[in-house]
């Protein structure tokens, strides 16, 4: 096998590690989303549970749990703790997809090649399923299986909430909708400038990707310098991921993506592709990927998988 | 003033204590919902912040923070800690109102005499405002100002999540919508039996009211017997509150309630008023109120305000 290129070897190792995490995440999600009530719960309604399972057990790359697990691994955190925190992050990611797909939001009918939750069920059920997935995410991350030290768990809840809320993911979705000129009585804003696009994307996508890395760092009791370096990695990775997504929206087919594409242009959505052009966006994606890798300079070979994630996230085909 | 009845004195003291808590809650909510980003946040979008303020700063009885504070007071918990936890519970209550009012859910246009969030803004903004209020609730309750001990805070996050999620409030709203026969492809269920109505209400309303009491108990490091007694109090109070609400929906005017009334009957909604008749529902309300008071038998005069809350919750006029 000496003819295999180094890049291909790294790619194969990354694919294999991603698949291992995804399998473990699937098992944990399946076990969490069962009909036996947990302590303190009264009853789990079948329809809501089915909608949550539809929204959470649809496969996917499980990139966020992977980032939690690989970051935690730098510090020797037991894998089952990191996966538990990773599952919480994935639940929050799934909640955001369920709500973003709603007719009142992005109005998407297909996700990962299947009907979105509101199409498979209805809008009310999808709203509640998203709400309950978000709530379950906090339940899972605050639980004793995530970390034996309660103060660490409470810290992680705070990191998580800041990544998800008004000043993070939810705020980013608000800015994204506003940029589409969606709101009556508000004049359509001039096309967003590059700085506004970057901020919106840093909130909408970057905050939870960076949050995944920060949660892994906190699980590992990383020191301030390590945490700062990992945050730089996470934010650059998140930005690279989003530019890559915008490029795919322009270039990939719906079949490759498992969802509608070329939507950004038809909605007049401002992305770095519209701001920088396709070639400029590709250069920016590569620059961000290199920035992410450079942020890991203080870590040794144990960070190789995070470096590979930055490299291949920028080159992903779906 | 010797002609004032004891009940009227208790009522005045309760009204005054409720007003004190409501004022403190308003101040804390106002301070939390400002445009300066918190640590870890990137930017707070103005439209989303305004919608969150609309949904959270609309006045109201602030019964849940009152229950947290009065329960915590039994154990000598500093008031500022209890109010902080109470504000988190109120944020979660407000999130539930914002989402429940959506056209896809209960479709209400007026709440506390003002347009609901989706009427004042739009559906997408209301969905995001609810999401961000729920996220902020977890942020507030996990923060160091709620309790110095991290493990206590993590425990409280768990109690809170169980009260709010699939097996609590969100699940209760799902059962309530299902009982209205809302879902295509599912035959309209036979009118809910009394046990089903009680379970649905225990989840939809009771779980967060009981959760408020349990959070106060956990803040105060209550022992197992005290916690069990307080949980019985909270669940009976929650049930009494909901029957009283159903009675008011039948008897009060929209002006008195600050929202539409007589909706249950027009929607064919199953409540204890439909199951037991109006007189039977009133007897059940009084019985539950007495059950709540009886659960506090092990506490002394320091629980007088919780007893008064049970008594007057059952007799409330709005």
| Quaternary structure state of the chains depicted | homodimer
What structural class do helix, strand and pairing data of chain A support? mainly alpha
Indicate the proportion of strand residues of chain A. under 5%
| Count of extended strands of chain A | 2
The H-and-E topology of chain A, N to C, reads as HHHHEEHHHHHHHHHH
Uncertain stretches of chain A: none
* Biggest sheet record of chain A: 2 strands, antiparallel
Shape of chain A: globular
Query: Number of helical runs of chain A?
Result: 14
Largest interface, with counts of residues having CB < 8 Å to the other chain, equals: A-B, 70 and 70 residues
Give the CATH architecture of chain A: Orthogonal Bundle
Describe the structure.
2 copies of one chain form a homodimer. The radius of gyration of chain A is 19 Å and the shape is globular. By secondary structure, chain A is mainly α. The longest helix of chain A has 28 residues, at 224-251. Chain A has a single domain (6-314), classed as Orthogonal Bundle (Farnesyl Diphosphate Synthase). In chain A, a hairpin with a 2-residue loop joins strand 1 (110-111) and strand 2 (114-115). In chain A, helix 10 packs antiparallel against helix 13. Chain A has 14 helices and 2 strands, in the order H-H-H-H-E-E-H-H-H-H-H-H-H-H-H-H. The mean pLDDT of chain A is 92. In chain A, strands 1-2 form a two-stranded antiparallel sheet. The interface between A and B is large, with 70 and 70 residues.
């Amino acid at each position: 096998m000496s003819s295999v290129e180094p890049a291909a070897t790294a790619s194969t190792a990354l694919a294999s590690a991603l698949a291992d995490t995804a399998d473990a995440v699937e098992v944990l999600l399946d076990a969490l989303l069962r009909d036996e009530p947990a302590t303190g719960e009264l009853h789990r309604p079948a329809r809501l549970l089915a909608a949550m399972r539809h929204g959470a057990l649809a496969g996917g790359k499980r990139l966020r749990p992977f980032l939690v697990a690989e970051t935690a691994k730098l510090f020797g955190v037991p894998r089952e703790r990191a996966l538990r925190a990773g599952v919480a992050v994935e639940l929050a990611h799934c909640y955001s997809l369920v709500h973003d797909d709603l007719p009142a939001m992005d109005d998407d009918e297909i996700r990962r090649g299947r009907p979105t939750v509101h199409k498979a069920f209805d809008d009310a059920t999808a709203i509640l399923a998203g709400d309950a997935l978000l709530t379950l995410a906090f339940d899972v991350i605050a639980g004793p299986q995530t970390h034996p030290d309660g103060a660490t768990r409470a810290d992680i809840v705070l990191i998580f909430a800041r990544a998800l809320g008004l000043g993070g993911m939810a705020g980013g979705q608000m800015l994204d909708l506003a940029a589409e000129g969606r709101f009556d009585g508000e004049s359509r804003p001039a096309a967003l400038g590059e700085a506004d696009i970057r901020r919106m994307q840093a909130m909408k996508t970057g905050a939870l990707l960076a949050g995944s890395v920060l949660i892994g760092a906190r699980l590992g009791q990383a020191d301030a310098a390590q945490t700062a370096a990992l945050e730089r990695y996470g934010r650059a990775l998140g930005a690279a991921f989003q530019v890559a997504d915008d490029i795919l929206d322009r270039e990939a087919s719906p079949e490759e993506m498992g969802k509608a594409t070329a939507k950004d242009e038809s909605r007049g959505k401002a992305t770095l592709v519209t701001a920088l052009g396709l070639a400029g966006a590709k250069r920016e994606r590569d620059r961000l990927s290199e920035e992410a890798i450079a942020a890991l300079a203080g870590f040794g070979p144990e960070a190789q998988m995070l470096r590979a994630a930055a490299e291949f996230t920028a080159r992903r085909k779906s």
